[in-house]
Structures are given as C-alpha cells and as structure tokens.
Amino acid sequence: MNTVVEDDSHPSITAMTRRIQRLTLHLLPLPPLQPSLLPQLNLPTCSSKANKLEVDKVTISTYMRGKNREIQDQIYDFFNSRPDLQNPVEISMKEHRDLCMRQLIALVREAKIKPFRYVVEDPAKYFAITEAVGGIDISLGIKLGVQFSLWGGSVLNLGTEKHRVKYFDGIDNLDYPGCFAMTELHHGSNVQGLQTTATFDPITDEFIIDTPNDGAIKWWIGNAAVHGKFATVFAKLLLPTHDSKGVSDMGVHSFIVSIRDLKTHQTLPGIEIHDCGHKVGLNGVDNGALRFHSVRIPRDNLLNRFGDVSRDGKYTSSLPTINQRFAAMLGELVGGRVGLAYTSVGFLKVSVTIAVRYSLIRQQFGPPKQPEVSILDYQSQQHKLMPMLASSYAFHFATQYLVEKYAEMKKMHDDQLVADVHALSAGLKSYVTSYTAKSLSTCREACGGHGYAAVNRFGSLRNDHDIFQTFEGDNTVLLQQVAGDLLKQYKDKFQGGPLSVTWSYLRESMNTYFSQPNPVTTRWESTDHLRDPKFQLDAFRYRTSRLLHTVAARLRKHTKTLGSFGAWNSCPDASSRAALKLVCDLYALDRICNDIGTFRNVDYVAPNKAKAIHKLTEYLSFQVRNIAGELVDAFDIPPLVTRAPIAMKSEAYAQYTHIVGF
Predict the structure, then answer these.
(1) Tens digit of pLDDT for each residue in 469-523?
(2) Which of 57, 197, 409, 509 is the most buried if burial means most Cβ atoms within 10 Å?
(3) Active-site residue among 408, 472, 630, 651?
C-alpha cells in the first residue's frame, strides 16, 4: 500500500488521512509479531513509589469528620467494649431484631447518646450519630431513624407544642417506641392517593381511623411487627357535612394512633398487625402491616401544625388549599431523604475501603522471574476503583453541604430555601444511592472469590443498601421531581422571573448555550485547562442547559397532542414489528449505546449516528413494553418456580396479603 503523506497546513486533509489509515486497519490484518520483539512486552515497572504525593491522613480525616468526630468515636468505643452487642455473621431474623432493639436501648440508656434532641436542634450532629450507628449495623441505623427521625420527627415537625410536651420524653428515652405509617399496599410514591380514612365524629369528639379495603393496609411499616407502641398514621381527613356528599375530604393529614398497650404490649382492639416477614436485607428492622377497624382516637391526636379541627367540626388552616398543605407537610419530612443520601455515602466509603485495601495486598502475576504485582497496579483494577474512591470524596462533601442547607432551612423556615433543599435532597438521594448500589457490586467483583465470602461484607452491604433506591422516594420519581423543578426554573428564566440560589447559574449558562461555542476553547487540551475548575463547572452547566432546552422543546411538542401527563409519560407511537426481531434489535442497540464512547473514540460511529442510536433505543424500549406481558408468558415458567406472589397474573394482591396473614 502506498504511504500517504499528511499535510499539516490543511487540517481537513490530515483528518481524512487518519480516517483512511484507520479504515485500512479494519481491512488488512496486522503483520505477525517478530519473536525478537516479544521481550519488549514485559509489564512496566510499578510506579507506585515514583512521584508519590505526600498525604497527611490525620489532617484530611480531621477535616472530613469535622466537629462531630467526638460523638462518633464515643459510639464506636461503646460498641467495641460490648461484644454482646456486636453482630455475628450468621443470625436469624428473630435474633437480629432482638439484638437490634437491645443495641438501640443500650445506646440511649447506657451510652447516654440521645439522638432525638438533635433532630431539630443540630441536624448535623444527628446525621453524624446515624452514620456511626449505621457502621455498627445498618439495621440499627434504620431502626434509630424510624424511632427518632420518622416517628419522633413527625411529632416535632407536624405537631404543635401540646404534642411535644406529651410525647418528647417518651420518644427520647424509648418508652414510646413508634412507627411511621404512610406507605400502603396500593400506594407508595403517590402519597396523595392514600386511602386510609380519619373521619371526625362531632358527637364523641374523636377521629375514627379506618382501613376501607385491602389496598389501604399500611405496608412495610418499620417497628410495627414487634416493637412499636405508637404510629403516626397518614390518612384522608373526612369531615361530616350537611349536604348530599355527607363528608368533605380535606386531604391527607397525620394522626397519632396507639397500636399496643404500654404495659402489656398487647395489640389494642380494632388494630390488626402482621409481620411482613424476611426481606432481602435490613432484617434487624421489624417491618409490619397495619389494618384499622374503626379505631377511635382523641381529636387532639391530629398533628395539627398545618390544619386543625375544632370541637364543633370546623376546619382551619393558614394554607388555603389541599395541595399547599400537602406540600408543607412533605417539606417537613425531607430530613429522611437527606439522611439516606448521607448514609449511602457511608456504604460507599466502607465498600471502597475494603476493596482498595484488599487490592493493595493481593498480588497476581508479574514479569517473568520477578515478584507478583499488586492487583491495584493493573489499569483495569484502577479503572474500577479509583473513580469510585474519588466519588466517595465528592459525595461526602456534597451530602455534607446538603446537611448544612437542611440545618439552615430548619432554623430559617424560608420558602425558597425549603424548595432548594427539597430539590437538592431529591437529586442527591437518587444519584448517590444509585451510584452506591452499582459500586457495591463492582467492589465485590473487584475482590474476586474472596469478595463473595459473607464475612467480607459485600453481600450484606449490597442487600441492606438495595432498598435505599426505593424508600423515602423512588429514585425514578425523585429524578422526575428534580427535572420538573429545573424546567420551572428554565421557564422563569425566559419569563424574567427570579431564579433560586441553587439554580442561579442557569441564567448565564443558558445564554452561553444559545451562543456559538468558542472554536478555540473547544480544542484546548492542556492539562492546566482540563484541571481548571472553571472549565469543569462550565462543562457540567453547559450539559445541563443543553438537556433542559431539549427536554423543554420535546415537552412543548408533546403537550399539544398528549396533554401535560401524556407528555411526561409517553414516547412516539409504535409501528408493529415481529416480536423476536424487536427484542433482538433492542438488545443489540442497547449494548452499543452503553459502550458508545468506544465507538466514538475510533470514529466508528459519527455524532449524529450515536444520537440516533440512543433515540432509537428509547423508542424500542417503549415498543417492547407494550408486549412485555406476552413476552414473559412465552418463557412458560410454572408458578412453582416463580413462587413470588407479586408475579401472579391474577389476584396478586390477594395472594400477597394471604401470605402475610390477612
């Protein structure tokens, strides 16, 4: 083949030459390697000693752990001195639940750690406590959160002074173990769709709590199966009227309901409690299901910060609409979401530490007649773990910032700050927990067969963390909330409205997006430029603006034909295809899409083609969804093999409730 001479004075000719050479490599096989060249292919000498940065571990640790290091060390020292409170590798569900409760009681009554008083007064210290406790056993951390942040937090944040006076001490010292009864069998994310009712009886001055159907059974309620004596129950508040309707629905409110006798611990009349049973993880937490049969509670048990009912049945609120009251109520409960993002980072740090330390001491292969090398010297292991280690640091400081903003919100009660914290907590909780879930599996794989041993913790870490992607807000739903908030900010930007502090960068970055990129800076590749924080932030902001503009345009287009809900929930109409060809196409294009960087790096796929592949993958996913039922039926797997009640083709909920005991 003739050698082509490149002409540097003509960039288009140079690029064309490189393209021809690459195509040639696809067409012609490489010549066989000469034996004389083989010795040159030895592994390079490990460079761990060369140009090594000196790191002061103590300084970094002190900086990261901050002012709450002392209370965390106090917790670690306490459990370290109590072998009877440490978790064995193998433990039954019942034993785990008993141990978890003993750990919590010992923490509060013996170690004198009182988390409840920090829930409102010092959220940063509260989250530091939960991080340390979760390090002992994440089931203990979740149980602590249910008691103090959810049950206790609902009393403090949704109730008024009379509730604080009556319940604070009992919650604080664990005399009043409680539950947070929001989720129902048929409703999780859609809280406004809850079906449990609380009907006011003006004759007796009581609310009647009732479960009208199986779908309204309170489900997955932590502390309910064994230990809880109270529950904050979320229900539709119904007031009697004198018209044809009979009742007026005032929206979802919260009520304190006693579920077990304080002395005998027996279930109270009208209340049915069942155990949700063994879970994928977190089996130290006793999740249960609650059903109410016309349970009467005093009118004062309404947590009435945002809405109250007088003795004669009149409703009053400083917020005029159901939606405003609902938003205010949920806004006060955002602390749980903040805590999950913060705790998820703890999982990531633990798993990365285990994987990195193992990778440093584990040695495999090496140059002929020389010692084996650490597996962390291999680029493949570095590519798995080093970005993850960097992410652990990034997420640590990001969630620390979130906690600071949350603490500021609790003091100031500023509406704009509340909105910012809501959006930030939704985005970070979703992003961090999803990343950690994937990273736990990657760390396990990076440690090979030894990572599979239960004693090395990846199995329990992965199982216990998995639900973090679902509770306190399903990650997909949360990301849609963040997108909705960004789109609102986008709209305000173009209508001249104010942008919140968090999204103020959009004003400048959107202006940048609508102007042509600088043809000089787009080609800069110096190390100083690429490591410049301004360049990095500008890149992220540009991407956000680009995606925002694109999705806004698409939503505007679809809203005209599908309505506002359809625009969010639909894809373009599908044309009919043969089922097997459809799933074959989706599989192939999805694989290509997932590794599109490789194809782009060698100019195998042009930019417009990569974009087309991505869009087509989304389209095919929608097509397969339409025949998903038929496709899984075609596997012809008998019920004996599937066994899962929720996998039943009919009466799935009936099967589910029957197994639990209803």
Answers:
(1) 998 888 888 888 888 877 777 776 655 555 555 556 566 666 655 555 555 555 5
(2) 409
(3) 472
